[in-house]
Amino acid sequence: MPIFEYTAKNSHYEVIKGKVEAKTKSQAVTLLSARGLFVIKLRTLNDNSFEWFKQFFNKVAFDDVVNFTRQMATMINAGLSLSKSLTILEQQHNPEMAKVVAGLLKEVETGGTFSNALAKHPQIFSRVYVQLVKAGEVGGVLDEVLERLAVTMEKEKEFRAKTKGALIYPAIVVTAMLIVATIMMVFVVPKLTDMYKDFGAQLPLPTLILMGISGFMVKNFILIVLGVTGGIFFFKNWAKTEMGQRKLDGWLFKLPIFGDLRKKIILTDFARTLSLLLGTGVSLLEALDIVAAAMDSLLYREALKDATKQVERGDSLSAAVAKYDLFPPLLNQMISVGEETGKIDDVLSKLSVFYESESEQAVKNMTVAMEPMIMIVLGIGVGMLVIAVILPIYSLTSQF
Predict the structure, then answer these.
(1) What pLDDT is recorded for position 53?
(2) Residue 292 and residue 284: Cα distance in Å, rounded?
(3) Strands across the sheet containing 38-44
(4) What is the mean pLDDT of each run of 10 residues along the chain (400 residues)?
């Protein structure tokens, strides 16, 4: 559906600019008039053949949702109506996010609830997000829910930034190593091979191995690229299956440093999300069901779903999760304390802070451990390459 950019005046004669989604220009004018706006200028934004290309680079990112939530929380807390807040937020830098906000506004203005409008965009607003907003609407505390959501998502955004920042250096070094090695094998080594053949030199074993690898890569370069691409595609599809997720989870959790980090990140999300849901009035069983569906691990999802059934039969949450090694004793004990004091949401909030700090420390430990390993591998690779290249040259010079 086309998106139109408009310039209009409201009842106070203030000039307002924004975007609206409609089938035709006349329908866009009708929608804007229903909002009490007098249209001055209206133009189509996505009426060109390159729109698909623009949309590819203008996808709604997590940061866009965080900014949207913070802005909504600020405006609702300031006393603005939901429709007015969404109208203001239509003016987004990201056209795709502006399109989403326009759809939300349209749904709200036609009598739908905000949570139902959000539920129509499951790729952008998670089930947890939608359920929290729904709980805020039912309880009449939408402003408080949005504020909690904004704070929680900002913490998650900060943690993601720290994690990505810590992994940038190793990723750059590994990528550079692979690129340099490929260039050497495909372009440099074949020229050295031709030179050695012209001189008729007796080549040592390291050089013969290097030449063999280089020759294979040059002759089968396209097949290697297709094989790697196909392997990545197959792996991604396999990882989406139940068997693939189960196997992958098992392998990842067994890794020395990364496995422990992954567990702590999952436990951080578990404690933070469950605390947020319980704090907004969602029942324990419903909250557990929502959290289980949102967890980024099949093993944890299955464990939590089974624990939910036990809670439904009358067991305490602490006793239910204690049966699984995936949940550490500290978490079980703290949940038990929360159940006894009636402040389980506060206890879970403190647990999420604890596991987040543990995750940050694990990220630091992982990067510290990776740096010397990368340097060792890089040193061995460069050393072998130098030996393979220098030995024939030394052999040739000794003949003269």
Answers:
(1) 43
(2) 12
(3) 15-21, 3-9, 38-44
(4) 76 76 76 78 62 53 88 88 86 76 88 90 87 84 87 85 78 84 83 74 79 86 90 90 89 85 89 87 88 86 92 91 90 91 90 88 79 83 80 68
Same topology, domains 3-125 and 152-400? Answer is: yes
Written as one string, the DSSP assignment of 165-233 is HHHHHHHHHHHHHHHHHHHIIIIIHHHHHHHHHHHT----HHHHHHHHHHHHHHHTHHHHHHHHHHHHH
* AA letter at 30: T
Question: Cα separation of 245 and 383, whole Å?
Answer: 39
Q: How far apart are CA 104 and CA 111, in angstroms?
A: 11
- Please provide residue 14's backbone torsions phi and psi, each rounded to the nearest 5 degrees: -90, 140
Tokens of 59: 């996808």
Contact 57, 97 (CB under 8 A): no
- 105 closest CA partner among 9, 14, 37, 13: 37
pLDDT the model gives residue 52: 44
The domain limits of the chain are 3-125, 152-400
8 Å CB contact between 86 and 75: no
CATH architecture for the domain at 152-400: Up-down Bundle (1.20)
- Whole-number Å distance between alpha carbons of 208 and 12: 83
CA distances from 192 to 208, 388, 395 (A): 12, 11, 14
- Give 3-125's CATH code, choosing from 3.90.350, 1.20.81, 2.40.160, 1.10.3470: 1.20.81
Name which of 85, 62, 67, 72 is nearest 132 in CA terms: 72
DSSP-derived 3-state class of residue 42? strand
Q: What is the DSSP secondary-structure string of 69-106?
A: HHHHHHHHHTT--HHHHHHHHT--SSHHHHHHHHHHHH
The per-residue pLDDT for 400 is: 54
pLDDT score for 49: 44
Q: Rounded to an integer, what distance in angstroms lies between the CA atom of residue 71 and that of residue 325?
A: 40
- pLDDT at site 39: 79
Structure confidence at residue 46 (pLDDT) = 55
The model's pTM: 0.70
